[in-house]
User: Which sequence fits this backbone?
């Protein structure tokens, strides 16, 4: 997938994260960071998210439908429906049943 400026989406995403870090943020919101990204780059993004959170104490709000990725890269979750949080907690509590009840596949 190519971004609107002709860069691959993975490069555009990494540049956006780098630009955000210049402002010394406490929170970064990532909307579907794995969409259209090659598996090897997804691993890099995952490692970066974990590193930013754990080593740099930056909260990452991850909007993601790739449940496997979200489970690996997160410590907590919230599922929203129609603008309301319908389930939340530790990522260990994000069961397959809970996912299937609230997410259409």
Assistant:
């Amino acid at each position: 997938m190519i971004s609107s400026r002709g860069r691959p989406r993975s490069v555009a995403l990494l540049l956006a994260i780098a630009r955000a870090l210049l402002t010394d943020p406490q929170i970064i919101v990532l909307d579907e960071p794995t969409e259209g990204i090659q598996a090897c780059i997804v691993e890099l993004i995952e490692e970066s998210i974990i590193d930013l959170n754990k080593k740099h104490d930056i909260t990452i709000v991850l909007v993601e439908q790739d449940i496997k990725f979200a489970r690996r890269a997160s410590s907590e979750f919230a599922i929203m429906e129609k603008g309301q949080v319908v389930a939340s907690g530790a990522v260990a509590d994000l069961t397959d049943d809970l996912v299937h009840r609230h997410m259409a596949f």
In short: The mean pLDDT is 86. The helical segments are 9-21, 39-54, 67-73, 96-102.
